[in-house]
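S., here's the first fold you wanted:
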Amino acid sequence: MLERSAASRFAPGFVVFPGGALEPGDQSLARRWYGTTAEAARACGVRELYEETGILATSRGPMARPDRPRDIEQVDFDPIAPEAMPEMARWIAPEFLPVRFDARFYALAAPPGLEPEPDGIEIGRGWWAEADTVVARAAAGEAPLMWPTFKTLQALRECRTVADVLALHVPQVEPRPDEVGEALRLQGGRP
């Protein structure tokens, strides 16, 4: 889990998974790494994971890169294969939310002892946590979550193994009208 810094332009102070907006360069990364621009969202995930945590998703698995150059274009590596980093969810913001997004969530297996090194710009803190712990902190008002993160964490609570996580597919569930207040509260807003 990551906590976005107070200076972040999007969701400051929120607890999130690594990730961010698709950038124009992600299409060229996808073409270079995967041979097709259709993998631009996955390339974005690899890039954002690296930029925000120093973890590089390679063909041999994720590895720490604390001495990282800021730009992933300067790093020579073979990227993780798409099947080793499956998409577990896709969330498109419901119409009632003021900030619109189309977010894809990916999973990958990490070796024991791999620690995130937050970039100190967008991300203030990074740590490993069980889904139950993060959901409990959100319920206590200690960890603001976006609705997609909350629902994905709820689904992750049912996983018992890494294989369960890699096989997980979380369907998009928009908040029902009676859950809108809860969705906004989780996002640090007022119902």
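And the second, which I think is the more interesting of the pair:
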Amino acid sequence: MGMSTRTWARSLGFSGGLPPAIKGLLFANIGIFLLEYFLQRFAPGSLLMDLLRVCALVPADVVTRLFVWQIVTYMFLHAGISHILWNMLALWMFGMELERLWGTRRFLQFYFFCGTGAGVCVVLLNYMFGDPRIPTVGSSGAIYGLLLAWAVLWPDRQILFSFLIPIKVKYFVMIIGAIAFLNSFNAGSTVSDVAHLGGMLFGYVFLKLPNTRKTQNRGRAAVNFSVTGSLRDTYKTWKLNRAKKKFEVYMRKQKSDRGPWVN
């Protein structure tokens, strides 16, 4: 993937430094990767290495041993150099403009909502259809959520697929989503496509929450999120609709019990 136009490169903000959330996530992921890399080679039996091992997402541990922190901590672990390289490249490319558009707090809300949502999907689906003892690591679930956000907000922007082929973001996300879906049926795959699809699903849900609204941010359309507010509004709407249905049933019953009209 890569930039296709010079104007887009400026909009991505390659000048001016990294925004706070992107900088913090890059430092955290790379720092933990380097720590794990050196511990595996020089202190594989250390207490710190043991702590890192229980940060990987193992569905059986989450359910039977209540290691619920794993649905968050697994996002900061990676299986190899290429794994972390591509995830951090995508975070940098697609996350910078989103953070500058939404602000740091809302960007982090979205990022962790997608990542933890992907983790929940991994736990549930591995228990139903897979092996709950297999660990999952990586921030790909959150990254796929960022890609989905790009497809929703800027569907006609172009990227260079494999750094060679110009393609609109909406088509690129459709392709990688279809690949992840089809590959999820491959029992021998070492890639957690469930996490990829889960991140996209939760990203879409977050963008479509009822309390999501358009605001103006320095002359650009920005999305204002409030997860708790949206869920609260959804619950209130459900209660109101339920009360309306009960009232309608009551009124129909009252009419059916009443005698014929007299003129």
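Why I say that: Residues 6-210 form a domain with the Rhomboid-like fold fold (CATH 1.20.1540.10). The first helix runs from residue 6 to 12.

Talk tomorrow,
H.
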